[in-house]
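Run log, item B.
One chain of 106 residues. Sequence copied directly from the ordering sheet:
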Amino acid sequence: MMIEVIGIRRLAGFKLELEFSDGTVGTRDFESLLQRTGPMIAPLKDPEYFGRVFLEDGALTWPNGYDWDPAALHYCGSRTLPSSYEQSLTRTDVRQLFFAILDFID
């Protein structure tokens, strides 16, 4: 069963309450984004821009195209992980890894 985010509710700061397709609800604090760098992350450091999050194909997505893998969010729940681990779990990174594995297999 593929897990998708089906609902978002903005809380204080960089926290979001997420509702998943399996019925679970969890709170996720994205404040660790403030410690990260890069052109895709920079706009998300602005609380107003961060608040423009929306759902696209069951994933948290921002206007600049940055998205977050719903399965990783579901697995992490409200736990805090090191930002290097969080970065490896973005939906874009998972997608790139998947295609790299397919290329390796062929």
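Observations after the first pass:
- Strands lie at 5-10, 15-20, 25-29, 54-56, 59-61, 67-68.
- Residues 5-105 form a domain with the NE0471 N-terminal domain-like fold (CATH 3.30.2020.10).
Flagged for discussion on Thursday.
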